[in-house]
TrEMBL record:
Family: Belongs to the short-chain dehydrogenases/reductases (SDR) family.
InterPro entries listed in its UniProt record: 17beta_DH, NAD(P)-bd_dom_sf, Sc_DH/Rdtase_CS, SDR_fam
Gene3D superfamilies membership: NAD(P)-binding Rossmann-like Domain
Presence of keyword Lipid metabolism: yes
Organism the protein comes from: Champsocephalus esox
Protein name: Retinol dehydrogenase 8
Amino acid sequence: MANSGQKVVLITGCSSGIGLRIAVTLAKDEKKRYHVIATMRDLKKKDKLVEAAGDAYGKTLMLLPLDVCSDDSVKQCINNVKDRHIDIFINNAGVGLLGPVESISIEEMKRVFETNFFGAVRMIKEVMPDMKKRRSGHIVVMSSVMGLQGVVFNDVYTASKFAIEGFCESMAVQLMKFNIRLSMIEPGPVHTEFETKMMEDVAKMEYPGADADTIRYFKDVYLPSSIDIFEAMGQTPDDIAKCLKKVIESNSPRFRNLTNSLYTPIVALKYADETGGLSVNTFYNLLFNFGPLMHITMSILKCLTCSCLRRRTI
C-alpha cells in the first residue's frame, strides 16, 4: 500500500527489459516518491524483477498479474489497486515482428496489434475515467522511433506504433482539459535479451511466400545493417528508464520524447519534405546503394560514441 505522499505508478510488461528497469528505477527512488505496481502476464517470470528490486520488493514495489489483451484481466488488475487510484500509468507491454510481409500471416499481424495497440487502448480506457474524476494523472506510453519513421522489414511493428502515436496524439488534446498529461517515449534501438534473440531467430528462419530476392535483401542486406545500427546507436534499458523518470518528474512533461539524440536528424528528414520522397529515397540509398559506406560509418560512430554520449537522453 502506498504511503502518504507517494505516487502510485502502474507499469505493464515488467518481466524483463525496459519494463523491469523502469519498475526497479522508480521503486529505488532515493526519496521514495513512488509506490510501484509492476505487472506481467505470468508471475512465474517474476524472479529477475524480484532479484533486481532487492529490498524494494514488498516495500515500494508490488506485483500483480495482468494480460493487456484480456478485458477481464485488465479490469481485475485495476480493481485490485486501492480505490483504483493510479497517479501514473506506464504502458510498456509490447511485442515485435520482423521479416518480409509476404511471409507473415494476418493472424500474426493481429497479435502484434492486439498487444501494441489494442492492449494500450484497453489499459488507457480503464485508468482514464478515474483520472478524469480526480482531474489529475499522467499516462506514459512506450512507443518507438518507428512510430515516427517507417523502417523497412518492420512493416507491421511500425504500423502498430504509428497507430498508437495517432491515438495518443488525439487523446492528449482532450486529456489536457482534465489536467491529465500524456507522454510518448520513443526509443531507437535498445539492447535487450528479447531483441538479441529475435535477431538470431529471424536470421535462421525460412520465409515461405517471399521471393528469393526479397529474402536475400532481408538476410544479407537489412539484417547486417540493422546489427551495425544496434551496435553503434543502441541504448540500454537503464537509459530508457532514466529518460522516462525525467519525463514523469518534469513540471511540464513533453508529449513526444526521443530518448536518443542521434536519431533526431533521421526523424527530421521526414518532416523536411512534405512529399515524403526525401526520407524514402534516403533510406533506400543508405540500404541498397551505400551499404558498405553505411557499415563503415556505423563502425566509426561506434568508436566515437562513448558510453557517456550514448547515455544522452532528452
